[in-house]
Amino acid sequence: GSDLVGFGAKSFLLGNTNAVVPGSPLGCGLAPCDALTNVRRGNDLEPHNSGDWGVMAKWSPAWLDGTLGVYYRETSEILPQAWLDARGISSANPNGTRPAGQVPAVVNTLNSLSTATYQLAYADNIKIAGLSLSKDVGGISVGSDLNIRHNMPLASIPAIVSTNSPLGLGQGLGLLPARTASTGVIYDTPSRGDSMSATGDTLHWTLNGLMTIPKMPVFDSATVLAELYYSNLLQLDDKNEALYKGKGTYRGIDQPTRDNWGLAVNFTPTWYQVFPGVDLNAPMSVNVGLDGVSPVTGGGAKDTGNYAVGLGAVVYNKYFVDLKYVDSFGQTDKCNTSGVSTGPTGGDGSTPNAFSGNENYACYAGGYSSFSGGGATTEDRGAVYLTMKTTF
Question: How many domains does the chain have?
Answer without folding.
Answer: 1
